[in-house]
Amino acid sequence: MGQDTVHGRIKSSIVFLAIIVITLASPKLFILHKLFFLGCGIIAILEIYLAYRSPSRIRTIREREIRMAMISETIIISGGTISYLTFMREQVMLIQLGVIVCDTFAYITGKLFGCKFIRVKPFPEISPKKSYEGLIGGIACSTISVLGFSLWQSQHGAVTFLNFLAITFIGGLTVLGDLLGSLTKRRLGIKDSNACTHDHWLLQYPERLMSGFGGFLDRLDSIFFVSFTLGIIYSLAT
Q: For 82-105, what is each residue's pLDDT tens digit?
């Protein structure tokens, strides 16, 4: 990874996280957070559509499979965005915390211990950089952080049903959402979700926020999937 790419990743991470933290810091700004996330969902769907419609994309005999991958990811993004908009501020904070901690510590533990204990890659064809050590570290740290936040959040030490779902599933759902996003991009033949948006008149400016870090889908694929799944489970169980 080049130095410019590393700097771009750091810059986009700081800017993106700053927007999330600032808009979640106060209940009065929560509506801005939801509007920001709604915009991210719309852009992510456009990224997928433009990648699919790109004239440079190689058409193959597996076109039906590619189309199904695009439709499935669009449903997840749409459903995840709608579910996210229905969650309360504390629930959104829980989801953001769990996903960010899982991604961060999966990366750190993967860098430190990747393939040192388990030399087989878990998903070599979909995401060759992932290791079992990284997955275990990310899921474990995510579960601990969500559990701690839930107990701190509750005045009487009781954990709500949605919090229980988050504690139980959020780490695994984060990994699964990332894998599905990677699989969709591989089916479409692109490395980053913003590969076909740089010259688009509507998306070229917001995509600069993701400079060096792919696109909005790359950053939010796990959030979309976690919100989508937890929203379905919560709706069915209540």
A: 999 999 888 898 899 899 899 889
